[in-house]
Design brief:
10 strands; Rossmann fold; single chain; alpha/beta; binds magnesium ion; six-stranded mixed β-sheet; globular; 9 helices; 26% strand; binds adenosine-5'-triphosphate; four-stranded antiparallel β-sheet; 245 residues
């Protein structure tokens, strides 16, 4: 069986000399959550942007068995690849509901209405604030809105770039609890970019460790159940800075 997403020898360059990603390969099956873990500058966002078509990449990217490297971002969204960038980027002056409408501008109005209901159902934290301005939401709620906006397009593959960024531990936990609910309730595949092993491993099936634009290690989440095994990969692949909760 072919994977939903297959990335083979993906390289990303910014200009002639600056290589951000070097021959990265990984696969994502339907319904699977695959994490890319690494420190600042490791190349995580560059991989996500290359898969979503926002930056050019070399190598092969297949979605549903078809090459997508030459497709525009818009066409990739149409096929079901949706990128939720780091930093949330909700439109503060618009209401929560209007932000969701933006995420589903390309779908028929009736579908859009039912998707908004589905998203608000999934994120009760923002449901009772749906008609208030998005800037009033807490950081964690804004992250839920950003994810919800991504879900509006009806993705088959969600590329989630550091959903925990800048959030207090309690809010990180809440966002990840919602993601676990999405996992249980849908067949959505997720590529999750993170720096924190502990929050990532609960949600993920497989974790790829990135350093300097390369994948330097891989583990199945079940291999990391023991504290000693986690400490080993932190020491080997992430460095001391990543150990902090
Ligand atoms: N638009 C750009 N132009 C030039 N260089 C870039 C650009 N975007 C990223 N880079 C460089 O590419 C490398 C990888 O960056 P990338 O944003 O992919 O890392 P990251 O793993 O997502 O980091 P972070 O955790 O800080 O978000 C870095 O050295 C970065 O400086
Ligand atoms: Mg990044």
């Amino acid at each position: 069986m072919t994977s939903l997403l297959s990335v083979r020898n993906l390289s990303v360059f910014y200009g002639a000399k600056s290589q951000a990603v070097e021959k990265v390969s990984f696969e994502v099956d339907t319904g699977a959550v695959v994490a890319l873990l690494g420190a600042n500058g490791a190349g995580k966002s560059s991989i996500m942007k290359a898969v979503s078509g926002l930056v050019p990449g070399r190598g092969e990217v297949h979605f549903d068995g078809e090459p997508i490297q030459t497709l525009s971002t818009r066409e990739r969204v149409r096929r079901g690849i949706v990128y939720v960038p780091e930093g949330r980027e909700v439109v503060g002056d618009l209401s929560v509901r209007e932000n969701l409408v933006l995420g589903g501008y390309q779908i028929p109005a009736a579908t859009r209405r039912s998707r908004i209901d589905m998203v608000l159902d999934l994120f009760p934290e923002i449901a009772n604030k749906a008609d208030g301005a998005a800037w009033r939401l807490s950081g964690g709620e804004q992250q839920m809105l950003a994810i919800g906006r991504g879900l509006m397009a009806g993705p088959r593959l969600l590329l989630l770039d550091e959903p925990s960024l800048g959030l207090a531990p309690l809010l990180v936990r809440r966002v990840f609890e919602r993601l676990e609910a999405i996992r249980k309730e849908t067949r959505l595949a997720i590529v999750l970019v993170e720096q924190n092993l502990r929050v990532t491993m609960r949600l993920s099936d497989e974790i790829h460790f990135l350093r300097g634009g390369r994948i330097v290690g891989r583990r199945r989440a079940e291999e990391l159940k023991e504290e000693a095994a986690r400490q080993e990969v932190i020491d080997a692949y992430l460095g001391a800075g990543a150990a902090a909760e």
